[in-house]
Amino acid sequence: MKPVVVVHGGAGSIVKEYEEGYISGVSQAALKGYEALKNGSNALKAVEEAVIVMEDDPHFNAGYGSVLNQEGDIEMDAIIMDGKNLMSGAVSAVRCIANPITLARLVMEKTDHVLLTCKGASQFAKSQGIPEVPTAKLITERSRERWKKNLAPGSNPLKLQLGLGTVGAVAIDGEGNVACATSTGGISNKMVGRVGDTSCIGSGGYADNAIGAVSTTGDGESIMKVVLARLILYHMEQGKTPEEATDAGLDYMKTRVDGYGGAIVINHRGCLERDETMDIVSPPGGSTNSASKCQGLYQGGTEIA
Ligand SMILES: NC(=O)C[C@H](N)C(=O)O
């Protein structure tokens, strides 16, 4: 099996001045995941490594650079899933850590649970020796500005939200194991304690060696209503190609709940798809496989190695 890793940095409009940063961020993430696979790591490790790169990059709405909630604080959601055994770990509304995806992995590996939230997630992080990072160190000027704009009377947080990239990755390794990982700061000016799609299994992501793996992004409340990641895999189980399945899932979300979003999808044979319902601009996306490495903001991307 040819190892493949695909990453995304969210769906929506791209602010011109950040375009280069987005491209560089998804490229580095894809390369990091690819290096992991090339060095013999499994798909799970590859998606975690790729997502960490984007959590550390202030261009994306995850980890450092996350959007702020109503109170000007950062609460983050993340999920990771191993398609080999359907093991999954997630955190929601977690504060003061740099890499929620690693905490999600620890939930999966070190607890009997699938999802830890808020204070419990923070306590668990502490017990695992994860360093506490003051919120101020995770806030960028850009997210603070956006938060302030959203506080103004008559503002439209959802519109200002477009282009704020949740991050994610899907991969298949040489053994045919698939995995997914997704991480986000959620939506700007959200209510304190809001749990988004990202941390919910089947919504923010899903991975099953028998079918494939999906990581989603977009309007979280809509994604949860249709359980988008699992819905796309359901269509693949019914015989649709990754492309057809992604279209069917996104179209259903648009028709039923008027929701927008995007997804990266890989099937158990390593074929991939990237799609979105928003017609503004394509999301930053990057993919690598053993034959070529591509990245770009628009469908197709360009070869980088
Ligand atoms: N930009 C995003 O993808 C937001 C995320 N899906 C959420 O609603 O929390």
TrEMBL record:
Domain of life: Eukaryota
GO MF assignments: asparaginase activity; beta-aspartyl-peptidase activity
Binding site for substrate: 194-197, 217-220
Site feature: Cleavage: 165-166
Family according to the record: Belongs to the Ntn-hydrolase family.
Reactions catalysed, as given in the entry: Cleavage of a beta-linked Asp residue from the N-terminus of a polypeptide; L-asparagine + H2O = L-aspartate + NH4(+)
Protein source organism: Leptobrachium leishanense (Leishan spiny toad)
InterPro entries recorded: ASRGL1_meta (IPR033844), Ntn_hydrolases_N (IPR029055), Peptidase_T2 (IPR000246)
Any one GO biological process: proteolysis
Record protein name field: Isoaspartyl peptidase/L-asparaginase
Presence of keyword Protease: yes
Keyword Metal-binding: no
Signal peptide: none
Pfam name, any one: Asparaginase_2
Active-site feature positions: 166
Gene Ontology CC terms: cytoplasm
EC identifiers of the protein: 3.4.19.5, 3.5.1.1
Keyword set, alphabetical order: Autocatalytic cleavage, Hydrolase, Protease
